[in-house]
Amino acid sequence: MEFKEVSKETTKRALEAVEIAKKTGKVKKGINEVTKTIERGQAKLVVVATDVNPKEIIMHLPLLCKEKNIPLIPVPSRQELGLSAGLSVPTSAVAIIKEGDSKDIIKELNK
């Protein structure tokens, strides 16, 4: 399962949504946490870094998100995703559970 190509603007907006949700809502970080929130249907948006090695670690996410009708946005860098989520270390995946002030951005990304 391949990740769909998204524009730089979409990538930027997804990272912005994570940053805003971190401050005003709630996010889960890391593959295991993100997988659990998707399975429980709690995630509003999932952002996944595509520079993960080995790729198998994240390959189940697009299918899970599709099943649960949760938008998934790939971003190129774990480092960038970690920074947006307020971490000092890279992270492979982030799920937004409570949108907070990022609600409009998430709506926009769902189109």
What this model shows, in words?
This protein is of the alpha+beta class and 111 residues long. It has a single domain, classed as Ribosomal protein L30/S12 (60s Ribosomal Protein L30, Chain: A), CATH 3.30.1330.30. The protein contains five helices and four strands, in the order H-E-H-E-H-E-H-E-H. The chain has helices at residues 8-24, 31-39, 61-68, 78-84, 103-109; strands spanning 26-29, 45-49, 72-75, 93-98. It has a four-stranded mixed beta sheet, with helices on both faces. Helix 1 (8-24) packs parallel to helix 4 (78-84) and helix 1 runs antiparallel to helix 5. The longest helix has 17 residues, at 8-24. The radius of gyration is 12 Å and the shape is globular. The two termini are 21 Å apart.
Structural descriptors:
four-stranded mixed beta sheet, 111 residues, single chain
Structure summary:
This protein has 111 residues and is α+β, with helices and mostly antiparallel strands. It is built from 5 helices and 4 strands, in the order αβαβαβαβα. The chain has one domain (8-109): 60s Ribosomal Protein L30, Chain: A.
CATH architecture: 2-Layer Sandwich
Number of domains: 1
Biggest sheet, spatial arrangement of strands: 1-4-2-3
CATH topology, by name, is 60s Ribosomal Protein L30, Chain: A
Biggest beta sheet summary: 4 strands, mixed
Derived from helix and strand composition plus strand pairing, the structural class reads alpha+beta
Using the CA coordinates, give the radius of gyration: 12 Å
What's the CATH H-level superfamily name? Ribosomal protein L30/S12
Helix-strand pattern: HEHEHEHEH
CATH class bucket: Alpha Beta
List segments where confidence is low: pLDDT < 50 over at least 5 consecutive residues. none
| Shape field | globular
Helical fraction equals 40-55%
